[in-house]
Amino acid sequence: MIMRNSELIMVVLLLAVLSLCRTNSLACNEREKHALLRFKQSLTDPANRLSSWSLTEGCCGWAGVRCDNVSGRVFELHLGNPEDSGTSTLVGKLSPALLQLEHLKFLNLSLNDFRGTPIPSFLGSMSSLTYLNLWGASFGGLIPHQLGNLSSLRQLYLGGNSGLYVDNFSWISLLSSLESLDLGWIDLHRDIHGLDYVSLLSSLSELYLPHCQLNYMISSQGYVNFTHSLTVLSLPSNNFSNNMPNWLFNLSSLLVLDLSDNALVGQIPSTISNLHNLNYLNLSVNMLIGRIPESLGQLKHLEILSIFSNFLCGPIIPYQLGNLSFLSYLDLRRNKLNGPIPSQLGNLSSLSYLFLYDNELNGTLPRNLGLLSNLVALSIGNNSIEGTILEVNFAKLSKLKFLDMLMYLTSIVFNVSQNWIPPFQLQHIFLSGCKLGPKFPAWLQTQRFLQTLTLHNVGIVGTVPKWFWMWASNIQTIYLGYNQISGNLSHVLINSTIFHADSNRFVGQLPHLSPNVVLFSIANNSLSGQISSLCQKMNERSKLRILDLSNNALSGELGHCLMRWQSLTHLNLGSNNLSGEIPESIGSLFFLKALHLHNNSFSGGIPLSLNKCTVLGLIDFAENKLTGNIPSWIGERPLLMIIRLRSNEFFGDIPQQICRLSSLIILDLANNRLSGSIPRCLNNISAMATIPSAIDDKFSTLKFSIYLGYQGSYLGYRENLVLVVKGRKSTYNNILPLVRIVDLSCNNLSGGIPIEISSLFGLQSLNLSRKHLMGRIPENIGGMKYLESLDLSNNHLSGEIPQSITNLTFLSYLDLSYNNLSGKIPSSTQLQSFNPLDFIGNPELCGAPLLKNCTENEGPQGDENVEGSERSWFYIGAATGFIVGFWGLCGALLCKRAWRHAYFKFLNNIKDRIYMATALKWSWLRDHFRRYHMISLGCLRGCNQEGREERGNGES
Known about the structure:
Layout: H1 2-24, H2 30-41, E1 43-44, E2 65-67, E3 74-78, E4 91-92, E5 106-108, E6 131-133, E7 140-142, E8 155-157, E9 163-165, E10 180-182, H3 194-198, E11 206-208, E12 232-234, E13 256-258, E14 280-282, E15 289-290, E16 304-306, E17 311-315, E18 329-331, E19 336-340, E20 353-355, E21 360-362, E22 377-379, E23 387-389, E24 402-404, E25 412-414, E26 428-430, E27 452-454, E28 461-463, H4 467-472, E29 477-479, E30 484-488, E31 493-494, E32 498-500, E33 505-507, E34 512-513, E35 519-521, E36 528-530, E37 546-548, E38 553-556, E39 570-572, E40 577-581, E41 594-596, E42 601-604, E43 618-620, E44 625-628, E45 642-644, E46 649-653, E47 666-668, E48 673-675, H5 686-689, E49 704-707, E50 714-717, E51 721-725, E52 728-732, E53 741-743, E54 750-752, E55 765-767, E56 772-775, E57 789-791, E58 796-799, E59 813-815, E60 820-824, H6 829-832, E61 844-846, H7 860-895, H8 897-955
Parallel strand pairs: 3-5, 5-6, 6-8, 7-9, 8-10, 10-11, 11-12, 12-13, 13-14, 14-16, 15-17, 16-18, 17-19, 18-20, 19-21, 20-22, 22-24, 23-25, 24-26, 26-27, 27-29, 28-30, 29-32, 30-33, 31-34, 32-35, 35-37, 36-38, 37-39, 38-40, 39-41, 40-42, 41-43, 42-44, 43-45, 44-46, 45-47, 46-48, 47-53, 53-55, ...
Antiparallel strand pairs: 1-4, 2-3, 49-50, 51-52
Helix pairs in contact: 7-8
């Protein structure tokens, strides 16, 4: 028996070897061989992938060529780029020589580079093709309709060619044998019925149409023919804005449904339970509302469920989801789910990823989540979860790599022992807002593979332990801000890519930075010494891009060590004790976007070399001792959005070139010695002339963020600025991109307020106080409807306050004091609510809120003249009326005898009627009085009689 088996195995091996030898020795069809060589000639092959294609060898042995074992005819070409890299890419265009391969069934040219050339129409004549893959091969232009002739085609992959488009998609319905279709990143929006044509393919099993600019989803089930065949429906990143159509839930064979990143509205229908074979469901980044349906708990095969970034509300999830025993990925981030986290989630034994970040969840963390032994990522941050975390909460989480409990509104308290050894080895920790202190958590040193550590505002008080700096040297990102951590940094080496430790109690000199550091921020501490301590020599070029040392006690001059930081984009040295001139070497920071040197003691002028920093977006030199003219080149920086030079000693005119800064949103030149007039061209600053918008991305050039490499997590650096608005200093950070301010106060400017300034419709704060401005307030100042603060005090402005100022409905701060304004203050709820001190120092101004009444204080002579004139006209009118009335009646009676008799007869009748009426009335009154008198006497007698009886009863 054993011998027979051995012989059988030998025979099989021999046949396999003979078959292989026969394949290699197949006679190649000469016609097809020369066709392939012509095809090769139309391509560039930098990696020599086609080096075996030569006349000396048979084509059946060439790389990527497959021949039929019997006929020797070429039936497959496997020429897709195997490495997805430019080094092995075939470049060129397709040759019509492929038409000579009459038996070709399989053609794969994916991930090559055909330089945006159109897909050749001759491919539609290769009728034997069953597989065509041109995915990501850099084709462009119109997809030829002739592809509809490939009636045998079963798999068609044209996706990944963003330059392709379709005008009429009806040809796709002719591919009746098609089973798999991928047209991702192809523009299909020109044919609104495109998806309808696809739905006619009754054999279609897999449909991939991501990023196709589709606007219309099939709405009627009558057009859908793939109801029972479709297993994959992937339509993410399109423009669908309707409800989820009913026909979707009749796709009973569906395994994968991806409708993410659209604008779908309405609720998730309960009929989703009809998709009972589903194992992947992605409805993320839509506009879905309502509750998560309980029927989702009936999808027994579901492994991945992602519905993040919608508007789902109500309880987090129905307890029925605890029945999904195969669920490994649950993502419900960025919704409006509320209530406690259900303990039923602890039943999901297969769960590896749980993301509940950024909802409205409350309550405590269920302990049985600590039993999910397969859990890799747990994200519950930015909710209102509170309570105490114990060691038991992590009892079985040995696979945990990602822990996010970042809290803003409430606080989770970690109550673990100093000797606790966690069962996990984390890679990313986000515990900002939790209470880990006051001691530095000792369990951290057990984590050997940590990449991200964020302990922002966790209540740590005291000195950094000795083991920390060596342990932290391999951690890429460290956030320790807003604690009370202390320690001397003079001899510390920082090696992390991002190190952020603002608002602590660190002392000593600046630490040493390795070339690997990209962001170093240690603002608002107590560091001292000179900047030069950072300027040690490095073997490698520094990667430093963000350096924030503001609000410390650093002193000395900047020197020339700035030249070592060639990659710097953001430099903040504000609020220190630095002095000397700003060095010319600062011009070598060619990539600088934001420069803060405010609140120091710098002197001299703005260095000319700074004009080499062509991408500058923010300059803050406020509160120094800088002098000289404001350089005209400052108007040649088109990306400049913020200029803050207040409280220095600049003199001369405001350069007209500033008006060229179309992106400027903050111009603060207050408290200098500038002279001349206000530029009339300020209305050319378009960013101030338009309404601020939250979606305006101009300010994004000043933002910095770095990807942490896990689940879309980013950390970054955001600019902040101290501005004087409404008479007080305020710090702006998150809303800084929306601020629009012009402050030219406390200078020697003269002339009038240019009427053009009222065209800055988006301006929110305008301060032109304490100068020598004359003339009138612009009449159309009311057009600046977003103005919240207006200060024109301490000038020489005259005339009346324009009536249009009542249109400033957002105005909450107004100061017009100490000018020469006159007339009545315009009436509006807004203006009359201000303090009278805001209008003081204008002797001719009257009306509320001032106590000076306009009607009582107008000129007396004018009042008497008006009053006398009115009285004269009254007497003239009365006399005229009397004369006309008297002679109109008496003159007629004198002239007409019949009228006289009729008139006096009428008077006699009236007299008789009056007499009779008076006599009757008098008689009635007399009788009435007599009866009243008799009744009164009777009542009086009755009362007297009752009184006598009562007295008699009392005596008895």
